[in-house]
Structure formats: C-alpha cells, structure tokens
C-alpha cells in the first residue's frame, strides 16, 4: 500500500458518521469530549446537524422526544463513563415511554479496559438490562452494528439501541474505504386474524356504553387518519390520555375529556388504542372503572395484553394502523346511538365541569393564581395563532403547572403536546422543547402535523421546580437561534412552595442558618428568583411579570420574538395544595 492510500483510509469516526448519514439521520443531540468529538465533526461535515447541550441528561431526553415526534429513532452522542451515566435518564425515558433512541457513547481503548483508563466504564454490562440491544463494534463491524442498534431501537415496541465506541475504534483507520450501510425501512406492520376481529366488532356493536381510549402509542404510530375515520363513522365517544391529546381534535364532539371520570366509570366496552392500563388509566380497576368492563386492548406488544386487569380475552396484538381500519370496515353501517343514557350522563358531566373551569379561570387574585395565568396565556396565543392551525407545540411539566394546563390548552392536531410522561419525569421540558423545535422547524422538518407547513412556535409551560432541572439549556436554545417561548410559573417551590410572603421565607432561612429546627422545608425553592435572566444572559429576552397586563404583553412579545424568551410569572405561592407534616402541626 502506498503512503497516499494509507492517508486516505477512513477513521472509525468517519465510518460512524457515514453510517448515520446512510441511515437517514438528520440531527444528533449530544455533548462531546475526546474522542467522540471526531464523530460529531465528521457528521457535521456530512451535513448532519449537531445540537450540543450543556448536560447529557437534557440531550438524551431530547433524542427520545425527537424519536416520538418523527417516528424514527432520535440519535444521542455522548462521551464514555460520566457521559454515559448522565445519559441514562434518556434510556429510562425511552424505555418507559416506548420512544426510539439510538445512543452512541465513547469508551476507553480496548487494550486499557480494567486498567483504570480515562473515563473507563463497562457500559455494556451497565446498560444491557435497560436497552433493547447494547453492542460494541470493531472497526470492521461499525456499519453493521450501528444499523442493527438503530433497527432494534425502532422495530417492535420502541426503546434504546446502545452502541459502545472504544477510542481505538473511533480513532483507528479502517481497511476498506466504504462499508455500505443498508437502509432500514419502516417496520412491517402486524395485523390480526379475521375471526378475532369479527368477535371484537360484535362486542363493540352490542355495547351500551362504548368508549375509545386514545394513547400516546396512537400518536407515535401516526394513526390519526385511521382513528378519525373510526370515530366519525361510529360516533363512539373517545378519551385521550395526556399525550394522546390531539390525535383527534380536542374540539371533536365525541371528545369526553371534560367528563373523564364519568366516561371511565360508565363504560362497559372500551377499545384501547396505544395506551397501557397503568397508573394513568387507574390500572383498569374499580372504583374508577366499572367492575365488569370489557377491554379490547390493541397493542403491538403482546406482553401488554391483559397485563393489569387480566382481561386478555378481547385483546388484539397488532398495529393500530392496520387493526383500526379493519375494525372500521367491520363496523360499517353501524352507529352508536347517541341518545343513550351514557351519552346523556357524559353531557351533564361535561357541562358541569366546563362551567366550573370557566368560573375558576375568571377568579382574579393578586398575585395571580394558576388558572388566571393560563387563561391569559391561552387567550393571547389563540389570538395570535388559532389552535386549528396547529402552529403551537406545547411542552409542559411541573406538578400543578402540568396538571392544570393540560385541560386549559386545547390541541387540534397530533403530537403537539408533550409532558412528563409515564415516569412523571420532571426535567424533560427544555430538552423536549429543543427536540420539538428541531423536528418541526429545521429546513426539511422531519416531523409533520396539522395543515400548515410554516414553522411552529414551541411554548413551554414550566413550574419553577421543573425549569430548574435543565435551565442551562436556555443557552443551547439561544446558541441555535431557537425562538422557544418558556413560561416559568413561579410559586417559589415544589408543589405549594413555602413562602406565603417573603418575610416568612426569610425567617425560615434564618432559622436554617442557625441550625434550628423549622428551617426551610424540603419543598422550598428560592423566593422570587429572577429566572428571566437565564434568557437575558445569552441573547434571549426575559420578562418578569406580576400582573395580567404584564403577562399578556410578555406573551405577545414572546410569541413574536425571534430569540428564546423566558417569562417569569410570580404567582401566589399558596395557590397550590399545601403539604402538611406531623412535625409542623405539633409546632416542633
Ligand atoms: P399513554 O401514556 O398515553 O397511556 P402508553 O405509553 O402507556 O400510553 O402506551 C402506549 C402503548 O402503545 C404501548 O404499550 C406501545 O406498545 C403501544 N404502541 C406503540 N406503537 C403502536 C402501534 N403502532 N400499534 C399499536 N400499539 C402501539
Ligand atoms: Mg413551583
């Protein structure tokens, strides 16, 4: 071999970047160091966008969200050892929410393993139980194993594919200039047997009180067209889960969200499309559900069927996009009688709950409460961008902030609302927002929803506690010119917070300094912390607001801004449920 040929031999890093490009990867989320920085640079040279975060945790969350929004694995690149440890939250998030992620991490040189090498960690052993596949390629098998990990994370129920990349593989020179990577097509879709489908269709037609539950699996499967047809044809009422919201428009007349308890309790046959019967659906148990409810669970994962309430008889293993059109065809000519007692009960409950919500939204206080805050933000945003356009993506986290805002902000199109998810994970918000911005706005957006092809505004509704988990990522937003609008609903603490007024807070803090019992509570956060400065310090815009007028102005300016914006809303600290403990009651 001539000297020139040796120089032209590609490095492992170049082969990795090339394999990613051939797999169709457009964006990598990550945080580099030696030697994975070479992979990132090779990828950038190939036109792949690299979004560099301030902490691997947020980067890994972003990759999972990108997987959810685009329906293809999101890619995350981190260094070995501590980088892998910091990215583990993303692995948990991917697996618990069934979002596909390809995680690539560096590791020490193969010949230094067990010697105490730089950032040495046996990540294969660590991650094998938590990933769908964990592999370590050699220079010869980079393309093959990367493809395998990508496909494994994606096919079947989604999760994480992990690739451990030793420094000698990244930096080594490969023998062959190009090992072609095979394209991985969308997974083949599974259907069900006709006999089972006919039985289930009959059961639905015989129901007194049928209900369709739409989960985030249906949103991930992009099954909106099929489900819309089923509902429009049959008039069966439906209930979305928190992230199933938008698969069918919230404004659809068959939506029972505002009569949730009545819908669950009264249903006798429930068709469940892409939702596990876990805590979010009260395990399918009494008293939230009727004791003799029949569940028709449609899921791509056979292990899921009948898991909690034992009703596997009517379960269907299959892809929603195949099974639902089959069912719709079998139900042709039949419509649910919307004069039924069930529908009447739902109507009564809807009217009552909606009237209560409208009343609560009108309550004015100073400082403002949650409902008033969300009412102002909603009205301002709707004026600037009506929900039917689908141009706003909501990301929401924080105990009260997420729970209350969920019912306030309607979504009319799928995958426009992300929240803490199955693990109720606080800290996902800013990573999710960056992922949503990248998925919906980058020149050739990989995620699509709604009628409009113009760019979408990402709006984060964050509690002050939730914001704190990854607030450094505001700088990431600024660096990449992401015009994300972040609201921090600031009550000075977790749940209720501690500080009814600043005097009390100062007194408690003084007690803490002096080592006295009765110092700051575990739920306390800083009093009126200037979170808006997070945006100001890196070229964004910050607003500190206390009044309805200030909030409306900040929302409008924030919506129109072309830089990241943090609106710090000081709200009444006692407006959420106060946690009481025995030692406080006894005055200890
Ligand atoms: P939610 O949080 O909305 O209740 P879950 O995350 O609990 O939803 O459940 C989503 C379910 O959807 C998972 O069990 C997953 O296996 C399933 N799923 C994902 N994609 C599909 C698909 N294409 N067809 C059928 N089921 C799917
Ligand atoms: Mg708070």
Automatic annotation (TrEMBL):
It is an enzyme of class 4 (lyase). It comes from the Eukaryota. CDD domains: TPP_BZL_OCoD_HPCL, TPP_PYR_POX_like. GO terms for molecular function: 2-hydroxyacyl-CoA lyase activity; magnesium ion binding; thiamine pyrophosphate binding. SUPFAM superfamilies: DHS-like NAD/FAD-binding domain, Thiamin diphosphate-binding fold (THDP-binding). Residues 197-327 form the Thiamine pyrophosphate enzyme central domain. One of its GO terms (cellular component) is peroxisomal matrix. Residues 11-125 form the Thiamine pyrophosphate enzyme N-terminal TPP-binding domain. Keywords: Lyase, Magnesium, Metal-binding, Peroxisome, Thiamine pyrophosphate. One of its GO terms (biological process) is fatty acid alpha-oxidation. Its cofactor is thiamine diphosphate; Mg(2+). This is 2-hydroxyacyl-CoA lyase. It comes from Lepidopterella palustris CBS 459.81. Belongs to the TPP enzyme family. Transmembrane segments: none annotated. Its EC number is 4.1.2.63. It catalyses: a 2-hydroxy-3-methyl fatty acyl-CoA = a 2-methyl-branched fatty aldehyde + formyl-CoA; an (R)-2-hydroxy-long-chain-fatty acyl-CoA = a long-chain fatty aldehyde + formyl-CoA. Residues 398-569 form the Thiamine pyrophosphate enzyme TPP-binding domain. Pfam families: TPP_enzyme_C, TPP_enzyme_M, TPP_enzyme_N. Catalyzes a carbon-carbon cleavage reaction; cleaves a 2-hydroxy-3-methylacyl-CoA into formyl-CoA and a 2-methyl-branched fatty aldehyde. It is found in: Peroxisome matrix.
